[in-house]
Amino acid sequence: MQPAPLPFYRKLCYAVGGAPYQMTGNALGFFLQIFLLDVVQLEPFHSSLILFLGRAWDAVTDPAVGFLISKSPRRRLGKLVPWIVSSTPFGVVFYCLVWSTPSDAMPVSLKFLWYLTMYCFFQTSMSCYHVPYSSLTMFLGGNQRDRDSATAYRMGVEVFSTLVGSGIQGQIVGGYHASMMKSCSVPNGTLYNGTSPGLTDTLENTRRAYVIASVVLGSLYCLACLILFLGVKEQPGPLSPLGRTQLPFCHSLRLILGHLPYVWLLGGFLFMSLAFQIAQGIFAFFCTHAAGLAGRFQHLVLIMLVVASLSIPFWQWFLVRFGKKPAVFVGLSLIIPALIVITVVSHNFLVFVFMVILAGCSMAVLYLLPWSMLPDVVDDFRLKNPNYLNLEAFFYSFYVFFNKFAGGLSLGISTMSLHFAGYRASDCTHNPSVILTLQILMAPVPITLLLIAMAIFCFYPIDEERRKQMRVEMEAAGHWVKNENPG
User: Fold this and answer.
1) N or C: more exposed end of the chain, with fewer CB within 10 A?
2) What is the pLDDT of residue 425?
3) Contact 360, 305 (CB under 8 A)
4) Alpha carbon separation from 4 to 140, 143, 146, 157, 480 (Å, rounded)
5) Closest C-alpha among 368, 268, 275, 264 to residue 318
6) Are 213 and 229 in contact (CB under 8 A)?
7) pLDDT higher than 80, residue 260
8) What is this structure's pTM?
C-alpha cells in the first residue's frame, strides 16, 4: 500500500526549518576565526582552543541530545517539534553573545573563558534544535522518493540560507575589515596599536558591525522556527512509531555503530566535511593576507554560495538519473582544480571568481548528498533490525556531531598552524612561513582529505539496486503492519 504523497507546502516549511543551522554555522565558519584573531585580538593559541573545545563539547551534547530525544515521550505537539521550539530562544541569545566583545580592559584569561562559554552554550542550543530537526526527515510522511524530494528542498533552502547568512555578515563587516587593513599605512607598520583615535574608532565600528549582523541573523532564526512549527506535523510510520526507545545508551550506540553502511557513510562524510571546512575557515584569511584581496573576499563568498544554491536542482537530477554514489565522485572532483588554481594565483579577482564558481558547484554536493544518503542507511538498519525501533534521532545525532566535529577540528588545525607559523594579528606584512602555511591549508590538505573521502565511499554498500530492493521491502512492511492493525 502506497503512503499518501507529501504535499508541497510541508516540504517547503520543513526546508525552511533548516535555515538557522546553516545561517549561523556558515557565518561562524567563514568569520569566527578572523573575528577572534583580528577583532577581539586573541592569540592564535587561545582562538584555536575556543574553536576546538567548543566543537569537542558537541562530542558530548549531540549524542546525549539524540539519546534524550529517543527516550522522550510523544506529546500533543509531537516528539521532535517541542525540542526545536523550546531551544530556539536560547540559541538566538547565545549566538548574539558569541559576537559581542568584552571590554579591552578584561584580562585575556577572562576573554578566553567568555568566548569558550558562549560558544559551548550556543552549540548545545543548536544541538537541541538541529538533531530533532534532521531526524524529522523520517517522519514527514510519503514514500522514499518524497523523502528525497523533501531533502532536496531542504538542501536548496539551506544553501540559500548560507548565502543569506554569509552575505549579510560579509556585507556588514567586510568593509570594516578593509578599513582595518588600510590602517597599515601608519608609520609603525602595525595594526590598531591603540595610540591613534582613528584606529580605535575603526576597531570599535568593526565590533559593532558584528553585533548588528548577529541580531539580524538571530531574527531570521526565530522566523524560520515559526514557519517550521506552523507547517510541519510529525507522521509516524510502520517502522517509525515515534515512541520511546527501551534500549540503554551503550546498547544503542553499539547497534548503530555496528551497522556497516552507517560506518562507511560516517567516515566518508567526516573527511569530506573536514576538507571543505578547512578551506572555508581559512578562505577569508587567505584572501586577506596571501591573495591580496582584502575587503573583496565577501564578494567571492557570495558568488560561491549563489552558485551552490543554483546547483542543487542539477545535482538532484543527477542523483536520480545516475545514482548517489556517482554524484559524490563527480561532485567532489570539481573542487580539486579550483583549490590548486586559487593557491597559485594572487591579486587576480577575475580568476578567483571563476574558481569559486567551480567550488560552489562542488559545495552543493556536500550539502545535498550526505543528507540524502543517510535516510537510506536508516531504512536499511530498520529492515535488518525490525525489533529495534525509535533510534532515528541517535543516527542523526552522530551525523550532526561528525559534521560539527569536522568544523571544530578544521578550525583548530588552521589556527594552531598559524600559531606555529608565527602569525600575529598586529602585523601588516607576514613572514614567508605564514604565507606558506595559508597555501598548504588552502589546497594540499583539503585535496588529500577529499581523496580519502572518495576512497571510503568506494566501499559504501547501498547502491541504486539496494535502494530499489529496500523500497519494495518497506512497502511490504507497511502493508503487513496495516493488515495486523486494521483499527
Assistant:
1) C
2) 62
3) yes
4) 11, 8, 10, 24, 17
5) 368
6) no
7) yes
8) 0.70
